[in-house]
# Entry
Amino acid sequence: MAELILCGRGGQGIVFLTRQIGQVLSAKGLNVVSSETHGMAVRGGSINSHLRIGGFFSPLIRAGHADFLISLDATETDNNKHYLKPGGLIVENSTLAEEPGIKRIDAAGLARELGRVQLENVVLLGYAATLEGFPVTVEQIRGQLSKEPREQVRSLNLRALQAGVDAAA
Amino acid sequence: MTQQNNPDVRFLMGNEAIGRGIVEAGCTVAAAYPGTPSSEVLESLVRWKKELNHPIYVEWSVNEKVAFEVAYGASLGGVRAAAAMKMVGLNVASDPFLSAAYLGIRGGLVVVVADDPGPHSSQTEQDSRFFAWFAKVPVLDPGTPAEALEMTLRAFELSEKYQVPVLLRPCLRVCHARQNVSLNTPRPAAYVGPFKKDWTRWAAIPKYRLKLHGELNEKLARIEREEPAASPVLLNEGAGNSIALVTSGSVSSHVRDIVASDERLQGIDVYKVDLPFPANRDALQKIVDEHERTLVVEETYPVLELQIKDRRKVTGRLSGDVPSQGELLPELVEEIVLRVCGKEPVLREAPVVKPRRPSLCPGCPHRPAFYTMRQVFDQAVYTGDIGCYTLGINMGAVDTCLCMGASIGMAGGMSRAPFTEGQTRVVATIGDSTFYHAGVPALVNAVHTRARFVLVIMDNNITAMTGGQPTPAQDFLADGSPGVAVDMERLVRGCGVDFLEIADPYDAEGMKQILEKARSYAFDDDKGVAVVITRRPCVRAPKVELPSDRFEIGEACDLCMSCLRDLECPAFHYVKSEKRMEIDADLCAGCGFCVQVCPSQAIKAKGA
# Structure
């Protein structure tokens, strides 16, 4: 059982991350349920995804129950902090220094170094996947991203994933 | 639900699961009009069609009424058919929908109608189960994506068994939820044989409609009595408690998790109804009679609750214990259940919610169009419509938003009302897809009645808000097969419009001149409706090449904030600590409009 909130701005690729994690866990035979934001709310607005692993029916996490808060935009972290359970971990795309309970990585900066800021979501996922208790491993995500048929997209995603993993080391 | 190493398990969105169900059911024709949260049903059908090399015909219809009629026609032709739409789309399709319930069907007919409690992306929170009741159509209410697939198959069976259309009503929390879902092999296309002429049914005059109404009532009575799905099913072990909870649909999933996770609630009997109309009223009453208290938790109207005859021991919306508006989020459901059970509520930290408002994308052609409209028409009343461009609200260029196509109809009426000083004009805006959907009859009406207003059709060559579906202006169909492009200019001219000009919204001066001509025609010369089409593709459309130009703000900037206030471009930021404006190169789409309209001419190309 694990519950994750992923948050950020519309267009940052939160749905993509949720789908990758869910697909890996579904293929493993686990029960996974998630919820996404579409439509009006995605035009640059605040968005979040809920992802629950275990015997759940509802796709929504109750306030105070999430194990992880994965935040692609530091200004959205506050809007989603209430979902975190006591002792839950925030993983944030930010240039600030780490503090207790918050792991930070400059995913946007690393993605720009790879030539595309749009890769920041995959960089952040690579970093998060190295953390203890995170529900998917780097290897599993790598396997999932390797299934992308378009060569250029696949290679960029794999490089972004590795950049996140290396940043954690 | 857990399937070890089964290659046919996918992590599917509820709408994709419904699309899969439509294919697995041997359906032959599917039609839809996009609308959040329903759009992915037909989008996924296109993918299933390609993946399985399945022969199903799929179309984005011009509107929901036509989508329903296409599906209904296919059903009378003997094949299984589906129509998909959002709940306000069912309002548009309501005329044929209500009538089809009387006439009945031949091949199984399933209407997927996605509800949006919240509402997150809609004009209303209407409950389509209530609409089904009004239309006398049975309705299935799935609670999860996996259940949505299974109920889609059941809906076709039910439809053919009782010869009625069946409504499948997923809420947003099913449509846009994802879950591990097991897939099955599609059955071959179902066919009940060719259309048999019988005008007393398929073209019934009022005398026969009375007979058909009686037949429909008999069908509903049989479903209520005989279908197991119409009766509440006990979900948890340990019956014989004093409190019952009756639920249905997506909110049933919250209920199940909450009851399972709180030891204090283990004693409640939780019942779920898959087919909330026509629900088995005797079975519902029996639950109420056998418990000291029955709590009904359903979304969004009291459909099950109203079908309980004696409600003296019932707690729900009608007793005022469940809010009559807003989504039933898990926290709220938990609070209601705990209160009814006399338990202490959970104390929580209030969330700090400062959500960003949605806004037109950087580079969106609607932004410069609205900007220039404000320059030319100033304090006019702006009737707006449904789409991305509703966000013209942020720029003071949308004053009304009622429903699809209403900008034109309302402009006709408003232009006949007296105006206060400064508000002497009406300017209507509508997107290309919405114009084809419901704008055309309204424009015919406006021209015919000599209404005086300017209509700006914002043509970005796509149905952008719902994810980029094609419009009738394209020469291809939903699955990429060839179609006939319906030319917008010819259509506008065909509505009787004499003043028609095409403007490029990225060209500030060119667009201004065209709008000024339109203003003279409609208002100064009082010649009737002037139509301006602003044409530029959506920046999010596939295959649209964006300019690589990037811009920066020079010394001349006097911090007038016009770029934030009037242009409202998300790429601009005010750096408070340094008291300067900045353009975020990651967000900028390179349209260059800001360079043309910056009052102090402070914006220049990078490196220039």
